[in-house]
Design goal:
Blueprint: H1 3-19, H2 37-55, H3 60-63, H4 76-94, E1 101-103, E2 106-108, H5 110-132, H6 140-150, H7 154-159, H8 174-181
Length: about 190
């Protein structure tokens, strides 16, 4: 699967799960330590808002703090879906040029950055779905593609503190294994 297709499928899956969040679910607990649904969605919206300026060549310093704090306002669902659409459009426009992006750790290949974003949308889409009682089944082809990409990066992510410890004794299916490698318990359920 090419990187543009992978990215768009993960963003579309994310947006569909956001649209399903009920008005009373924004404070629900998620599998992400210390994050409720609103905080989780705000995190991904921040990534989506950062995407456009970064793929167009801006640096972290040039973007500054414009995407700090609460980005969701009074319309968290609409804001998240719009941000996802804007990020998707920016990636589609930028990918043919393959211009490097300037990240906090230095310049990065655009395709690598887009793969990072795809993985984050996929895993946080599951986080959101399991927290809100939504559809937790992830696209099998996307899971396989992200798993193949992540296999060479897992330890680097873990050493950098980006993901938690791998969950042992997860079910043997591809989705559960990918979630476990990202430090998620694929059998997590919200607290009663």
């Amino acid at each position: 699967m090419d990187i543009e297709t992978l990215y768009h499928r993960t963003v579309d899956g994310w947006a569909a799960r956001v649209e399903a969040v009920g008005a009373d679910q924004w404070t629900a607990t998620t599998p992400c330590a210390d994050w409720d649904v609103r905080t989780l969605v705000n995190h991904v919206v921040g990534e989506d808002l950062w995407t456009e300026p970064l793929v167009r060549g801006e640096t972290i310093e040039e973007v500054g703090d414009r995407f700090d704090g609460d980005l969701l306002g009074d319309d968290p669902r609409g804001t998240a879906v719009r941000a996802a659409g804007q990020a998707s459009a920016a990636v589609a426009e930028a990918l043919p040029a393959r211009t490097p992006v300037h990240l906090s750790y230095g310049d990065e290949d655009l395709e690598e950055y887009v793969a990072q974003l795809a993985a984050d949308h996929l895993v946080h889409g599951w986080d959101l779905a399991v927290a809100t009682g939504g559809d937790t089944a992830l696209d099998g082809d996307v899971v396989d593609a992200v798993a193949a990409w992540f296999s060479e990066r897992e330890e680097m992510y873990r050493e950098g503190g980006v993901i938690g410890p791998r969950v042992d004794q997860a079910p043997d299916d591809a989705q559960s294994q990918l979630l476990a490698h990202f430090g998620r318990d694929p059998q997590w359920v919200p607290p009663a």
